[in-house]
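Problem 12. The chain below contains 270 residues. Write out its predicted structure in token notation.
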Amino acid sequence: MATLEWVTDQCILEQKQTDKQLMESAGNNKLPKWVLKDNDLTVRAQLLIEGLSQVAAAFEMHKTKELALPLVMTATVAPEALAKTYRKAIVDLLNSDSNDNVIGIDPDNNTDRKKKSAAASDNSQPDANSEEPQETRKLLSLVTTDEIISNIRKALQNPQGTARLISSLAEIRPFEAWGCDYTPDNKAYCVTLIDYQNAQRNQLAQTLFKDQCAAHGITIDRETRYSSDMRLYRIRLGSKTDMEAVRNFEGVHCIEEAIPIRNEMGFILA
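Solution.
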């Protein structure tokens, strides 16, 4: 089961080796070679502004619907900018409305899924000519004020002054719960909720999830506690429509197929 890796020094230690490779030497004020220039920089800035516009539109809709939990956006860190010093500038921007908006890192991205898919493919053979997918990280960040959107937009509209910051960002967009495809032969799925790094919000997310399942006729087979204020839910989905409904529930982070566990005699245990 994929889990969220939170933005703390302890969790960032796992990327220590990568950081050493990507960090510029101490005291070097020269921009890294990977920082974009000229038209490439302009194109990246425009791409990010378009993504931010989607976030702004989602935030306006979010306010209209008067939803209980805050909107979450993702800021994808470019592979070249995984070093802690580069990520710090992104985190500072996302927190620039004086709120602690960054709530974690979502490591389960398309790169991980491609690797899993390739490993699970029948008769799959390594392709010597294929390139290894580049590693990325998606920062999960709350959007609770218009100020934060305005601050990000100002930074993106000044590409010459914020070239390294813009080059460090690969994508900005509203968060969407990710998950597997619906499999009719297996109706059991596991759901994890977003960890808002706030006990009250996490409790509210759990209550909303149960209420939304009840309203849509979706059965919760099991609720498992895996931290002080986080839960894992095993649910039963009868159709692809049910899958899409759950994906759109407030607070859902991901949906994965629950693989049946069999004993030595071949009987399904769970």
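Discussion. The two ends are 16 Å apart (CA to CA). Students who got a different answer should revisit the alignment rule from Section 12.3.
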